[in-house]
Amino acid sequence: MPGIFRFCILRCTALIVLFFSSGAFAQNTDIELLRSINVHRDRSLDVAMKNITNFDYPVSMAVPLGELVYGYARHDSTALANGLQTIGGYAINAVLSYGLKYAVNRPRPFTTYPDIQPYENYTDHSFPSGHTSFAFSTATSLSISYPKWYVIAPSYLWAAAVGYSRLHLGVHYPTDVLAGAVIGAGSSWLAYKGNRWLQKRKNGSKTGKSVFWLWFLQIS
Questions:
Q1: pTM for this structure?
Q2: How far is CA 63 from CA 50, 66, 69, 86, 95, in A?
Q3: Which DSSP category does 206 fall into?
Q4: What percent of the chain has pLDDT above 90?
Q5: 128: cis peptide before it, omega within 30°?
Q6: Residue 122: per-residue pLDDT
Q7: pLDDT 10s digits, 152-171
């Protein structure tokens, strides 16, 4: 499973770099795709899309909280380690996502193109999509920790729905969403690999929880 994640992340990253390097053509393609989704959207879906967007962060926070509560209640070191690993992925994701927002400094699409109809006038920068990155970080963390189809499929369907909602609601370009998906998935994969690396180095540790916590403190 991690090998597949790494392959997808590398391919998507290459696509993003190629897209931005092609200049005006890329920007035209980006806005035209957004127009086809936002301007010509099915307005009966607006409420559902707003709910998906608004529940993104609460769902993302509930996942590690649930793992930690269950782990402490059941004295389950694996659940505790999974919860801490998820939080570690969020920490990496937050640094990368919000760092890039201010480094790239890309205006929101509705600021540049008045025909785009946002559901909310955000004042921060557009690239990458923070909602999408957290949704994909959550989906990837769950998929790594619980590699069953009935976990993986709903997790990524939810993450994809969050990404689409950001386009439907007119607050991000498609490349913002694609970058958010790559960053989110990559962050959780890095947290997983970091945990594995420290487990090998700290082979005498009794639980993955303590090993991961040492690594999390190192990157914070």
A1: 0.82
A2: 21, 5, 10, 8, 20
A3: S
A4: 64
A5: yes
A6: 85
A7: 999 999 999 999 999 999 99
Q: How far apart are CA 32 and CA 195, in angstroms?
A: 41
Residue 25 has pLDDT above 50, yes or no: no
Alpha-carbon span 184 to 176, nearest angstrom: 12
CA 84, CA 10: separation in Å to the nearest integer? 25
CA dist., res. 89 & res. 79, Å (int): 15
Indicate if the alpha-carbon torsion angle 194, 200, 203, 208 is positive or negative.
Answer: positive
- Nearest Cα neighbor of 9 from 92, 83, 91, 104 is 92
Which DSSP category does 205 fall into?
Answer: -
Let me know if 91 is exposed, middle or buried by CB neighbors in 10 A (0-12, 13-18, 19+).
middle
CB-neighbour burial class of residue 102 (10 A; exposed 0-12, middle 13-18, buried 19+): exposed
Estimate the share of the chain in helix, then strand, then coil, as percent rounded to the nearest 5. 80, 0, 20
Q: On the CB side of 119, how many CA atoms lie within 13 Å of its CA?
A: 19
As separate numbers, helices (DSSP H) first and strands (DSSP E) second, the chain gives 10, 0
What one-letter code names the amino acid at 90? Answer: Y
Residue with tokens 């607050």: 171
Q: How far apart are CA 23 and CA 99, in angstroms?
A: 22
Task: Return the structure tokens found at 7.
Answer: 């392959």
